[in-house]
Automatic annotation (TrEMBL):
Name of the protein this chain belongs to: SMP-30/Gluconolactonase/LRE-like region domain-containing protein
Matches recorded under InterPro entries: 6-blade_b-propeller_TolB-like (IPR011042), SGL (IPR013658), SMP-30 (IPR005511), SMP-30/CGR1_Lactonase (IPR051262)
Molecular function (Gene Ontology), one example: metal ion binding
Highest taxon of the lineage: Bacteria
Residue ranges occupied by any SMP-30/Gluconolactonase/LRE-like region domain in the UniProt entry: 13-284
Cofactor(s) listed in the protein's UniProt record: Zn(2+)
Source organism of this protein record: Sphingomonas changbaiensis NBRC 104936
Annotated residues for binding of substrate: N122
Binding positions (a divalent metal cation): N171, D227
Length: 307
């Protein structure tokens, strides 16, 4: 297992890390329904409390935080781990929200795409046109599970479209360095797919078994589920991997470059910051920690960040 530095602990299922220009890292705490800024050495502060289940987070072109709110889970605490399962008892749907990091003001932008209700928005990435792609992971119920997809929306709240349907619990999402590929990881199939991007919000259909235009890239074996992902400067897709507990680094050609173990079976997300984007920040959700470690390659400079 790689050596790492603990940035914060005592977090209630952290996810969605965003490395800010001031050196802090903002994370969501899904179980607690809040957004928290972490400074290192255990220092942290709550900057917003949207409630529900705050999940994926990204900085928009207007300096606001854009949040995928999954609406909430139920939880178990066992063997030193906080484990989500099923929809919260008071769940009524998911949403995309905009948050002012200075004031904590929360504004709901989208709850539907036309007649399609957002069930459990999960991960988000902005493109160079100022719009964003996001996954809807859906919700699990006692004897059923949502069939969901991938959406594209404008940051001003004026337009949202379902771009891909169906997928099996899509989770992580990211863009290649040139913006021509959209990567999507499915949780329970532990498969990584890519789509060819034709223009902002538009994907090439091509040929696939489901008719969505998805191209298979990589599948994990063994006891693995896929969570959120980030893309590094070499174009590798770094997928947070549940079960084995770590980051699966997959090349654009679909080869496993390396597996970075973390020791937490609920390793859920990764982002980069620091000098030359060589510091990886990883959320260890089961044990409630945010950690950092030196990464062998720089992370990818995201739109609206790291530039």
């Amino acid at each position: 297992m790689h050596s790492f530095t603990e940035i914060a602990n005592g977090l209630r299922f952290p996810e969605g890390p965003v490395a800010m220009p001031d050196g802090s890292v903002i994370v969501v705490e899904i179980e607690a329904g809040r957004i928290t800024r972490c400074w290192g050495d255990g220092k942290k502060e709550v900057i917003a409390t949207p409630g529900g289940g705050p999940n994926g987070l990204a900085l928009g072109p207007d300096g606001m935080l854009y949040l995928c709110n999954n609406g909430g889970f139920e939880y178990l605490e066992t063997q030193g781990l906080l484990i989500p399962h099923g929809a919260a008892r008071n769940w009524s749907g998911g949403s995309i929200q905009r948050i002012d990091p200075d004031t904590g003001k929360v504004e709901t932008l989208y709850t539907h795409a036309g007649e399609v209700q957002l069930r459990g928005p999960n991960d988000i990435v902005f493109d160079d046109a100022g719009g964003f792609w996001f996954t809807d992971h859906g919700k699990n119920f006692e004897r059923s599970r949502d069939i969901v997809g991938v959406f594209y929306a404008k940051a001003d709240g004026s337009q949202i479209e379902e771009a891909v349907f169906p997928m099996e619990n899509p989770n992580g999402i990211g863009l290649s360095p040139d913006g021509k590929r959209l990567y999507v990881a499915e949780t329970y199939t532990a498969k990584l797919w890519y789509f060819d991007v034709e223009s902002p919000g538009k994907l090439a259909r091509g040929e696939s078994l489901t008719g969505t235009g998805a191209h298979f890239l990589y599948g994990a074996g063994g006891y693995s589920w896929f969570d959120s992902l980030g893309v590094d400067s070499a174009g590798n897709i770094c997928v947070a991997t549940i079960g084995n507990g770590g980051i699966s680094v997959v090349s654009p050609q679909g080869e496993l470059v390396e597996f970075v173990q973390t020791g937490d079976p609920f390793t859920t997300n990764i982002c980069w910051g620091g000098p030359e984007l060589r510091t990886a920040y990883i959320t260890l959700s089961g044990t409630g920690r945010l950690i950092s470690l030196e990464w062998p390659r720089p992370g990818l400079a995201l739109h609206n960040l790291n530039r």
